[in-house]
Specification:
By secondary structure, this protein is an alpha/beta fold. Helices cover about 20% and strands about 20% of the residues.
Length: about 800
C-alpha cells in the first residue's frame, strides 16, 4: 500500500476491483465506511455481486481477466475529456519524456519482440533497448512539459488507448457502455484539486498472466489524476495475511535480498560487479535517485550476515552467498516443475500447504512423490504432509520420507508483523506453545546450530556456514528483540558522521547513516529506524495524531521507510511546497522568504520524501537544490511509461491463457506474448474448447482461511461452510438442468472435483461480442484432509499452469471449466 489502512477514510471516491474487501478484508472496510459517512462514493467492479457490491454506491460486473480493457477505457475517457491534473502530470510524471524513434507498437506487439523457440516456459521476450528515452548532451532525458511532442509519453499513451473506445471495451468486458461511463465519470472527478480517489485491490488483479499490468494501468490513472502521494489516494494492495508485506520486505521471494536488493547472478563475479549492475546512475542534478545508495545497503547487509568475518579484503563475504544462474528463474512454478522432473530431491514446506494452494495441484502432489525427503513445518498436519495418503496415491510406490515439525501458533510467539500499510507492529507472546510445538525462530536457530556443527567437522565450502552470524538467542531460546536490532542495524566500529561520533554497537538511527565501508551492519535497510537507541519503535502505542489530524498517528507502531505513512508525499504539494488539498494535507513547507525566495524552513506533517527545499520559490523561480518527488525512480518521476516491465511499457489487453472467445477485439495477439506457460504431461490448457465452455474463477469466503488448515478442523466453521461449492447464475443452472443444492462435477483440462451447486443472482451471463459467456466461482479453502469424507477437494486441481511474466504468479482468476450434474 502506498498509503495505509486508516488513510482510506480520507478518500472522496474508492474504487474496489480485484477484491471483495467487505468480506475478506473487513478492517479495511471499517475505514471505507467512515469515508462513505463523510460523503465518499464507493465503486465496486467485480464479476460476482459480493458483500462489497452490496455496500457500493455504484456496482458493475466485468468478465474475469478483462480489467486492462476496462481501465484502458478509463484512461481514454480521462484524456479525451481533459480530466487529468495537467500540472501534476507534466511536472511529476514522465508524461513529458521523449521516447526514442525506435519505439513502436503494432497490432498487439511492442517493438523488439522475440518469440521463444526453446523449451522454456516463456512464450517470448522483448529487447527493451527500443523503449529507451532520448537523452540530451548531459545524459538527462529530454522532456517536453507542454506534453505536445508527438513522441512524448503523454502523446504515445493517448495514441495507445485511442482504440479503447466504449463499444470495444464493452464488447470485451461484457460491461454495458452506460455502466462504463458511470464509473469513468465518477472516478475521473478525483482529478480535481482538493479531491482524492483511491484504489483497493487484491488477488483478483494479481493472479493473471497480465496481473502486473492490471495494477500498472490503475497506477497510470492515479498519476494522471494526481492521486499519488496524497491523503485518501494511492494504489493500495490488500494482503491476504497479516504479515505478507513483512515477509516480502524480508526476501520471501527468490529474486530479492532483504530490502528489495537483487539476488546476485552468477555473472556478478565480484561485489563491485554486483553493486555496479544494480546501482542506477542519473545525470539529472534534480533526481534524488535514492537507489544510488545501493552499495551502502548491500555491504551493510553482508556485515549483518557475517559480522566480523566480513571484511573489505574478502569483499565482505560476498562470495560466500549463493548466486543464481543467469537467465534462470526459481519461482514457485519453476521449483515444482523441477521437482516434478526429478531435479529437486529435498523440500521444506514451512507454514504452507502447496498440495492445496498451488496452481495445478495434481502436478504438485505428483512432484512431492518424487522427493527423497520432505519436512512439513506447521501447526497441524495437512494435505501436503499427508499427500501420500491422498486421493489417487499409492503409498507403496512413494519413497518420500516425510518429517513433521510442530510449530507454535501466532499468539504463542513474540515478534513483529508488517501489515499491508507497511506498519510494523510488535506482538508479545501469550501462552507458551503446547506439547512439542516450538516457535519458528527456535526451530530455525536449532536447525542452524546443527548445520554449523556438521560443517565444523566436515563439508565442502564450509565458510558460508561457519562464518554466518548466529547469535539471536537468550538463555537458549530465540530472542526476537536481538533479531529486530540486527535487522535495524548497528555501527560495527566507532564512526563519525556529520561531526557526531557513534560508538561501536550503537543502533543506527536511520538508513541515511548506513555506509559502504563496513562500518555499519543492517539486516534490512528499509527497516533501519525501526529499533533504535530510543527503543522498539514497533511497540509504540500512542494515539496522538500529527498536527494535520488526517490519521497518520506517527507514534503508533512504525512504518517503513523512516516512519513515513504516505509514500511519495512530496507529490501531494505543488511546486512551491503547498498542498494540492488544503483540507486533508499530508505535508506542507513552512519557510522564511526573502525577496520572493525561500532562505530556510521545514516540512511539517508526515515524514517528507526527502527534506530538500520545494521545487520552486514562492515567486515561481526554480530551485537547483531541490529534488523531483518520486525519489525511488532513477529519473525522479512517476512512471506512466514503464520500460522495465517484461510485457511492455504500456499495459495492453490480452485474453487469459484459457478464454471463451476466439478473437481479441483489440489486436490479433490473443494471449500475453511474454506469459509463462508450463507444458508437461501433467499440464495443459484449453482455449475455445467446447469441452470447457464456462469461465471459472476462485475466491475466498469469510468462514475459512487460506487452504482451510486452521479452519476446516473447527466444527463450528464447518457447520457454516461445510463443503466445496460452485456458484452459478440462474441462467446457467437452467441451461444445465441443475437445481440449487445438487451435487455437480466441475472439470477443467487438468482435473475435476465434486461441489454443491449454489444457484444465485450474484452471477449474470456476459454478452461478449455475439456470444453469451457464463462464469462460475469456487472457493479455494478445501482439501481432502478435512472434512473426513475426503470428497471435498481444492479448487486448484482445476487452475492452469500459466503465470505473469514479471512475477510468475499463477492465473487462477480466469480459466475454463465445465459443470455437469452428478
Amino acid at each position: 500500500m502506498t498509503n495505509h489502512w486508516i488513510d482510506l477514510k480520507n478518500s472522496d471516491c474508492i474504487l474496489i476491483m480485484g477484491s471483495n474487501a467487505a468480506e475478506n478484508h473487513p478492517i479495511s472496510f471499517k475505514y471505507v465506511t467512515q469515508a462513505m459517512e463523510n460523503g465518499a462514493t464507493l465503486i465496486n467492479v467485480d464479476p460476482r455481486f459480493t458483500r462489497t457490491s452490496a455496500r457500493a454506491d455504484i456496482y458493475t460486473a466485468l468478465r474475469s481477466g478483462t480489467d486492462i480493457a476496462f481501465l484502458g477505457g478509463m484512461i481514454k475517457y480521462i484524456l479525451d475529456n481533459h480530466l487529468y491534473n495537467h500540472e501534476y502530470t507534466a511536472e511529476y510524471t514522465n508524461a513529458g519524456f521523449i521516447v526514442g524513434k525506435a519505439f513502436g507498437f503494432n497490432d498487439g506487439l511492442f517493438s523488439g519482440y522475440r518469440k521463444n523457440d526453446d523449451e522454456g516456459p516463456s512464450m517470448g521476450s522483448y529487447d527493451k533497448s527500443t523503449w529507451a528515452f532520448e537523452m540530451d548532451a548531459n545524459g538527462v532525458p529530454k522532456i517536453d512539459r507542454t506534453l505536445k511532442h508527438d513522441r512524448c509519453v503523454f502523446q504515445l499513451m493517448k495514441k495507445h488507448y485511442e482504440r479503447y473506445d466504449l463499444e470495444t471495451v464493452s464488447k470485451i468486458t461484457g460491461t454495458s457502455k452506460q455502466d462504463l461511463l458511470t464509473v469513468y465519470k465518477t472516478y475521473s472527478a478525483t482529478g480535481k484539486k482538493g479531491q482524492a480517489g483511491t484504489i483497493m485491490y487484491a488477488m483478483g488483479w494479481t493472479q493473471h498472466t497480465v496481473g502486473t499490468q492490471m495494477i500498472r494501468t490503475m497506477a497510470m490513472i492515479q498519476l494522471i489524476l494526481g492521486n499519488m502521494g496524497i491523503a485518501g489516494g494511492g494504489v493500495n494492495a490488500l494482503r491476504g495475511e497479516s504479515n505478507v508485506q513483512g515477509s516480502t520486505d524480508h526476501c520471501l521471494l527468490w529474486h530479492i535480498w532483504p530490502g528489495y536488493l537483487k539476488t546476485p547472478r552468477s555473472s556478478n563475479d565480484s561485489l563491485d560487479a554486483y553493486n555496479q549492475a544494480y546501482t542506477p546512475a542519473s545525470n539529472d542534478p534534480l533526481s534524488a535517485n535514492w537507489w544510488q545508495n545501493y552499495p551502502k545497503y548491500s555491504v551493510s547487509l553482508l556485515k549483518a550476515f557475517f559480522g566480523d568475518a566480513a571484511t573489505k579484503d574478502n569483499q565482505f563475504g560476498y562470495h560466500w552467498l549463493p548466486k543464481v544462474d543467469d537467465g534462470e528463474v526459481y519461482s514457485w512454478f519453476d521449483l515444482f516443475d523441477a521437482m516434478y522432473k526429478d531435479n529437486i530431491k529435498g523440500f521444506f514446506a514451512w507454514g504452507q500447504n502447496p498440495a492445496c494452494s498451488g496452481s495445478n495441484a495434481s502436478k504438485i502432489r505428483e512432484a512431492l512423490g518424487k522427493l527423497d525427503w520432505m519436512v512439513n513445518t506447521n501447526i497441524f498436519d495437512n494435505e501436503t504432509g499427508s499427500f501420500w495418503k491422498g486421493p489417487g496415491m499409492d503409498p507403496s510406490k512413494i519413497g518420500t520420507e516425510v518429517f513433521m515439525l510442530p510449530a507454535a501458533v501466532s499468539v504463542e510467539k513474540e515478534g513483529s508483523i508488517t501489515n499491508s500499510g507497511r506498519w510494523m507492529q510488535w506482538r508479545y507472546q501469550g501462552p507458551k506453545p503446547l506439547g512439542n510445538a516450538r516457535p519458528d525462530g527456535d526451530i530455525i536457530m536449532q536447525l542452524g546450530h546443527h548445520i554449523k556443527d556438521l560443517y565444523q567437522s566436515s563439508g565442502e565450502f564450509a565458510d558460508p556456514i561457519i562464518n554466518l552470524k548466529w547469535d539471536y538467542e537468550t538463555h537458549g531460546e530465540f530472542d526476537a528483540h536481538k533479531a529486530a536490532k540486527a535487522i535495524n542495524g548497528t555501527f560495527t566500529r566507532d564512526t563519525t558522521i556529520k561531526d557526531k561520533v557513534y560508538k561501536k554497537g550503537t543502533l543506527v538511527p536511520s538508513f541515511a547513516f548506513l555506509q559502504a565501508d563496513g562500518s555499519t551492519a543492517s539486516g534490512n535497510w528499509l527497516y533501519c529506524n525501526s529499533y533504535t537507541e530510543k527503543g522498539n519503535m514497533a511497540a509504540r502505542r500512542s494515539n496522538k495524531d500529527a498536527s494535520n489530524n488526517i490519521g497518520l498517528y506517527p507514534e503508533f507502531a512504525w512504518c517503513w521507510p523512516v516512519n513515513r505513512r504516505i509514500i511519495y508525499n512530496r507529490a501531494s504539494v505543488d511546486l512551491k511546497g503547498q498542498p494540492w488539498d488544503e483540507k486533508d494535507w499530508v505535508i506542507r513547507y513552512e519557510g522564511q522568504v526573502d525577496d520572493g525566495k525561500y532562505v530556510s524552513g521545514k516540512w511539517v506533517g508526515d515524514v517528507p520524501d526527502g527534506g530538500w527545499f520545494p521545487m520552486q520559490n514562492p515567486d515561481g523561480t526554480r530551485r537547483t537544490d531541490s529534488r523531483h518527488p518520486f525519489i525511488m525512480r532513477k529519473h525522479g518521476h512517476g512512471q506512466i511509461f514503464g520500460p522495465g516491465r517484461a510485457d511492455g511499457p504500456f499495459p495492453e489487453h490480452y485474453e487469459p491463457l484459457e478464454c471463451p472467445v476466439e478473437k481479441n477485439y483489440l489486436s490479433s495477439v490473443m494471449v500475453n506474448p511474454t506469459a509463462v506457460v508450463y507444458s508437461t504431461k501433467a499440464d495443459g490448457h484449453a482455449t475455445c474448447d467446447p469441452r470447457f465452455p464456462f469461465v471459472g474463477t476462485t475466491y475466498r469466503v469469510s468462514e475459512h482461511w487460506q487452504t482451510g488448515l486452521m479452519t476446516r478442523p473447527q466444527e463450528w466453521l464447518m457447520e457454516l461452510q461445510p463443503n466445496m461449492f460452485v456458484e452459478m447464475s440462474e441462467e446457467l443452472a437452467k441451461l444445465r438442468g441443475i437445481q440449487n443444492g445438487e451435487r455437480v462435477k466441475v472439470a477443467s483440462m487438468r482435473g475435476a472435483l465434486e461441489a454443491t451447486a449454489i444457484v444465485t443472482k450474484r452471477f449474470k451471463p456476459f454478452q461478449i461480442g455475439p456470444a453469451t459467456v457464463h462464469q462460475v466461482g469456487i472457493p479455494w479453502h478445501f482439501g481432502w484432509r478435512w472434512p473426513e469424507t475426503g470428497t471435498e477437494e481444492t479448487a486448484n486441481l482445476l487452475t492452469p499452469p500459466a503465470g505473469d511474466p514479471n512475477t510468475r504468479i499463477p492465473e487462477t482468476k480466469a480459466f475454463m471449466v465445465n459443470v455437469t450434474k452428478l
